[in-house]
Amino acid sequence: MKKSESILPEQILELADAQCSGIITEVELAALEQLLTEHPEYRREYLNYVFLHIGLASAAKSAQLPPAEAEAPTIPQKPRRVPARFLLIPCFSLLVCLCAVGLFLSLQSAPQKAGAPDIVQDRSQYYFDENAVPPSEVAFVQSTLQAKWELLGKNPVMTDHFQPGTVKVTSGNVDFAFSGGADVSLTSPSLFGMEGKDQGTLFSGKLLTHRSDGKAPFKLETPSVELINRGTEYEVSVNEESETYVHVLDGQVEVKLRGRLPRFYWNFDQRESESLQDAIGMGAIRAGKNAVRVEGIIGSGAIRFNNHPDASLLLGNGGGKEVGTGDYAVSTGVTIEAMVISEWEISDHQPAKKPYDYDEIFRKEDGSYRILLSFQNDEKAGVSQIPVVKGGPCLSFGLFLSGMGYSELDMPLDGKEGRPTLAEMRDGKPHHIVATYNGWTGVKAIYIDGKLRMSHRFPVGTMIISGGSTPAVIGNLITSDFESFVGREPFSGVIDEVAFYDYALDPATIAAHFECVKAGRDYFEGQLNKFVLQEKQGKNMLLNKGQKMRFSAETGEPVL
Prior knowledge:
The protein is an alpha+beta fold.
């Protein structure tokens, strides 16, 4: 039979009295905890009762001490010793009461059945590298309405101040204020990524946004398009088919189709008299003396690396100044693609300490926020592997993922489950290597010669955190003296056709790229300049007040 609500306070206080007196049993303590969990309205009364006992215990302790003399005695007297048994009872009671306060605080952090969650009034640094400067705070909670939310990750937390990461709203509404001046109101259920002070990503759900302050445009990415807000108020939603719906309530919204070209493409086909450079942005490449131009695997040029410390190509930092900045700062996806002839001079045993046996294909070393693609052989790999695999030679793809930390997808070169063997990767032939991460699906994957060889799935909406001041490098790891071009993980062999994308190539595109290189053509079938010009000349769509539009998930084009 259910106990009457009228006797609950009395029962709780009786149990609290037993707790503070140190005579409560385990069964009674469990009953007390259950009552306070099921009836949070009585917690404050419970806590007041505990503090009363703390005060009484302190007074009892003071009563056992000798009274202070009004004046110092003229003759020194031996102080009276208080028997330990008189001090023990109040001290014990004080200790038990403090434990009771601990119980109260633990119950306060327990999940609530209804209403807004208790939030941590602190920065959300729970998944960042303690040894590096974390990304800046980008947003904070402005208001809530019967809302529950958490940061996505392996240790979900609730907070009201956010660094880059993904918020999962499971009930109610939450209003966020971005430090760049935009206000965003999320309606549950929604999955929303906070990329920067002026940029967010709606993975699923519905939001309303407008700019209340600031001049910089707020960019909102969806699976279909990128929306640019310059003071406009609009609604946007993403359905289960990943289609994007936009309704402009005031002003104008600029709609930009997502680009399909890489951010960088290094084909090394420049003439001998010309400097090496990125074929898209024309950014200069600086080469160490043991990175030598040779005949191309595809096209006229490639680079041979001879496993010497100064076998390296320095690519620059893409304008990065801190974590989350620069052209190598990606969030919802990334692809590293290359043609490789490996001559990896692997040791017969796994090194137990540094320097480990690595051959770097691509690496941007920003501490734990690094991006890497390399051949590896070390016994310490299990520390950062997701999933964990047996030791031995592998092809490693490392990223820092929000809420998850830094980890590497290490593909063993063992010939099992469709994976290539070490001998196959060192057979003297060129191999098409592609590493991708797709935040829209959570899939991290490695492809060899057009085929998926290994993958792992993280929670949908898990974003990459990358970028910063350190230069990116092809063929080595350089961490300090960049001007010397000297690194400690040099490549051995030939590298060509390296591309860096800010999204994940899909399996069909990867297979098509492999067919191209098999036929002796580059990934873009010799039409790169045409595609670059088309993207530069592409006009963004403007939606005016009152307009509604739906955009295809596959093409980003309007669906009429």
